[in-house]
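Weekly structure sync, notes
Attendees: PL (lead), two postdocs, one rotation student
Agenda item 3: pending single-chain targets
PL asked that the sequence for the first pending target be pasted directly into the notes so everyone works from the same version. It is reproduced below exactly as submitted, 276 residues in total.
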Amino acid sequence: MSAPAEPTLPAPYRIVGRRQDAADVFTWTVEPLGEPALTFLPGQFNMLYAYGIGEVPVSISSAAAGEPLLHTIRAVGSVTRPMAALPVGTVIGLRGPYGSAWPLAEAEGGDLLIVAGGLGLAPLRPAILGALARRAQFGRLCLLYGTRGPADVLFADQLAAWRARGDVELRVTVDRATPDWTGEVGVVTRLIARADVDPARTTALVCGPEIMMRFAGEALLRRGVPAPRIHLSLERNMKCAVGYCGHCQLGPHFICRDGPVLAWPRLAGLLDVAEL
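Predicted structure, written out during the meeting:
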């Protein structure tokens, strides 16, 4: 894993591709200018800096090997909305990678249950691709994905390809269906009880809105998944990414430094604390 020599100094990267994934979600492909190629672990994040606009933490959504560097971003705030308007060719700053990773190596030999809500599929995508690349190392592989509506489904073509493999249980649900939607309707946490996995030998990876992750964790515990094998990815208002500023503190943890991926026992009771 590579890391910048100076943790607060962004390196120059150029936007070389842009894809619109949903009305408010886009993906950048970026390349370094004169820097070595970035290496990272699935689940880690970078700090992206748009000159004259600001900086935000964004999880890496590309495979850890064999793909260009991708970041999937929702245009929701004073930084990401202007970012959405930047054209291909723009130079941005990038710091990273930072944080903890999805425990794929620890999960080998058992079943893998992945629960994604909305944009949470993007940080999980590197883990999914990593597991598929080593498919024989896992038992059952189940992906549960929920989003607001059919128009908000991310990576639709890739979801179809994963389903077509035949060795992945893939269930997609939406909160609000349209007349042409033929899939499931309802919150994604309801699918956990029906996932075809052996709870005692399952590792669960969860990412999405915080309230969804709290309910998902509770549902996984009821299903019998051991608490230490339930892993959540949090964000919590990260600013510096290196544990200096304290903005992302949650109980004893600094999410940028100790997370973003944390096991359920480390978060017990903490998700009831409202984000400031």
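Discussion points:
- The two ends are 32 Å apart (CA to CA).
- Residues 210-223 form the longest helix (14 residues).
Action: rotation student to compare against the earlier draft before next sync.
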